[in-house]
Write a structure and sequence with these properties.
binds alpha-D-glucopyranuronic acid; Immunoglobulin-like; 8 helices; disordered N terminus; alpha/beta; TIM Barrel; six-stranded antiparallel beta sheet; Jelly Rolls; 600 residues; 3 domains; eight-stranded parallel β-barrel
Length: 600
């Protein structure tokens, strides 16, 4: 039994963990009682981590800046003071809030004071939507926990030492890249650091609904199956699931660990991109009650077909980095998400890939509402340290947090475990472990990865990466006409795969600086990009077993790997839109292709 499972079990037996134990995630955190801690926080930029280590590079016994020490006399030497420090907005990466922090990678300390109403018997948690990349959390001078991984939520219980007035919350956030991390040191996106998503205090009864999975039973369109997990001493109390619009009220009894299996027939309207029907689902137990907006649909791989609600679907996709339109910086608001999804809808997409890390929950919830299918992934990207057991544990933890958070989102149909990872036995073992973990966490969705390919001959690309054996959907990226030959080469290519599984081209594209013109063989011109798109579309039509295409990428996005002055200026320019929201000719070519595929 894993540590977290044991911990959960102990909790349900009324055995409260030591202060700050990181429990399995509280589901639907934004719907819980509590207070938001969004807004201005005091910050100290700490490039040498002098707020944590002493001059011998040993952790300071008193927790350093986390102790928030104040001079007791005029002669005391304290070399930091949050109360006179600068401020940054939370949520928000630090890079786009101060020009001098745009390229900064390292530690920033955040401090926020808060008051907290504490009802008798209630439990209090501090919850973070994400912190990139490692967070160390202190409350009232005591360390309550740490988290690694820049794109998934986490929380710590603070019941034992939170007070009604004058709480001091301090967070050390460090976004240094390291070879053994997930992602590793080399990525094609900006390393936006900080408290990049919402932070809130969650207040729940002593026994509460910690997590739940309420979806259609695999293979059924009329039976709901899942589970509800209670946390706290009242582990035996009944659980009631209500879906008023479907006339459902069902009560269940949890087992000794607080887990209640849920199953009932239901006559419901299925969720789809064309008709994104969501239901209010309320889960009650004892004094706790939480309501979620859940859609119900099926997704299956049958032979080479992808079936949504039992019917073949062609995925008209585009990739969208979590970068806010116009201002850049990490997406955290519904307004940012709405703009990006509105642009994707203008391309006539029914599907979005959210690369290369779990995006803010606001994206997957809005995709549910707007009717966009979603590919969600963890940042197992390029050359990971496949033989490091801690790296695998980190990847598994991030995968678990991604699936735990979004397993009730109808829009999410694909979990991806890797992107463009070089073949080899250690990589195959590592990724197969992740695929098995994903399946054990969620039997209803399909698993994929952007696989490696090779040329069988100069005109034939074969997709037979051994990882494909364990996937439900075979995907691969290709840049014929950009990284691989010139645009004319696209016309010569045929595709083969031995896998009798749905097949998706998960990336294709070319760079163009909006407004740069020339002939269609001049790099970085709109004409060159359009030339690639026209030929790519013609190639798609020649692939009989193609189930979907995902253009790389909706909007130009920042990357430290793209320094070409006057053209890239630290932007990857493969967007259909420029970073200023200008549509390039390739936008219209793809939109026309997707309109022609609507009935497929
Ligand atoms: C790769 C990778 C992307 C990258 C793209 C590019 O396929 O998956 O993250 O941005 O190529 O080079 O533009």
């Amino acid at each position: 039994m894993s540590y977290l499972r044991l911990l959960s079990a102990l909790l349900c037996l009324g055995v409260f963990p030591a202060l700050g134990a990181e429990l399995e995630l509280i589901q639907n955190a934004s719907a819980r009682q509590g207070v938001t801690l969004n807004g201005p926080w005091r910050v100290i930029v700490d490039p040498y981590e002098s707020g944590y280590y002493d001059y011998r590079y040993k952790p300071q016994a008193d927790g350093g800046f986390g102790a928030n020490k104040k001079p007791q006399s005029k002669s005391d030497l304290i070399e930091y003071d949050f109360d006179t420090a600068d401020r940054l907005q939370v949520p928000g990466d630090w890079n786009t809030q101060r020009p001098e922090l745009m390229l900064y990678e390292g530690t920033v300390w955040y401090k926020r004071d808060f008051d907290c109403t504490i009802q008798p018997g209630h439990r209090i948690f501090v919850w973070f939507g994400a912190a990139n990349y490692r967070a160390m959390v202190f409350l009232n001078g005591v360390k309550v926990g740490e988290h690694e991984g820049g794109f998934t939520p986490f929380q710590f219980e603070i019941t034992a030492n939170v007070r009604e007035k004058g709480n001091v919350l301090i967070v050390k956030v460090d976004d240094q890249r390291k070879q053994d991390f997930i992602p590793t040191v080399m990525t094609d996106w900006w390393n936006y650091g900080g408290l990049t998503r919402a932070v809130r205090i969650i207040d729940v009864p002593g026994t509460f609904v910690q997590d739940y999975s309420i979806q259609l039973e695999k293979g059924s369109q009329t039976r709901v199956a899942g589970w509800v997990r209670l946390n706290g001493a009242g582990r035996g109390q009944k659980v009631t699931v209500r879906i008023p619009e479907a006339g459902i009220t069902q009560t269940f009894t949890p087992d000794a660990t607080g887990l209640a299996r849920v199953a009932f027939d239901a006559r419901i309207d299925l969720w789809s991109p064309e008709r994104p029907k969501l239901y209010d689902v309320t889960i009650e137990s004892g004094a706790d009650r939480v309501t979620d907006r859940i859609g119900f649909r099926t997704i299956e791989a049958r032979g080479r077909n992808l079936l949504l609600n039992g019917k073949p679907v062609f995925l008209r996709g585009v990739s969208i980095h979590a970068e806010a339109p116009f201002r850049a910086g990490r997406v955290y608001s519904e307004a940012d998400a709405r703009t990006l999804f509105q642009w994707a809808k203008e391309v006539d997409c029914n599907f979005v890939r959210l690369p290369h890390y779990p995006h803010d929950e606001v994206m997957t919830r809005l995709a549910d509402e707007l009717g966009l299918l979603v590919w969600s992934e963890i940042p197992v990207y390029w050359t990971i340290s496949w033989e490091n057991p801690e790296t695998l544990r980190n990847a598994e933890r991030q995968l678990t947090e991604m699936i735990t958070r979004d397993k009730n989102r109808a829009s999410v149909i694909l979990w991806s475990v890797a992107n463009e990872t070089p073949r080899g036995d250690p990589r195959l073992k590592f990724l197969t472990t992740l695929v098995e973990r994903a399946r054990s966490l969620d039997s209803t969705r399909l698993i994929t990865a952007a696989l490696e390919t090779h040329y069988a001959d100069p005109r034939t690309i074969v997709v037979e990466d051994p990882l494909g054996k364990s996937l439900d959907v075979v995907s691969c990226n290709e840049y014929i006409g950009w990284y691989d030959g010139l645009p004319g080469k696209i016309d010569t290519i045929a595709w083969q795969t031995p896998y009798e599984k749905p097949f998706i081209l998960s990336e294709f594209g070319a760079d163009a600086q909006a407004g740069r013109h020339g002939d269609d063989l001049t790099r970085f011109t709109e004409e060159y990009q359009a030339n690639v798109y026209r030929r790519q579309v013609a190639m798609f039509r020649r692939i009989p077993f193609l189930n979907g295409t995902i253009a790389w990428v909706l909007v130009d996005f920042r990357s430290p790997r793209r320094p070409l002055a006057g053209i890239q200026d630290f932007y990857n320019r493969k967007g259909l839109f420029s970073d200023r929201g200008e549509r390039k000719p390739a936008f219209y070519i793809l939109r026309d292709y997707y309109k022609s595929m609507e009935s497929k």
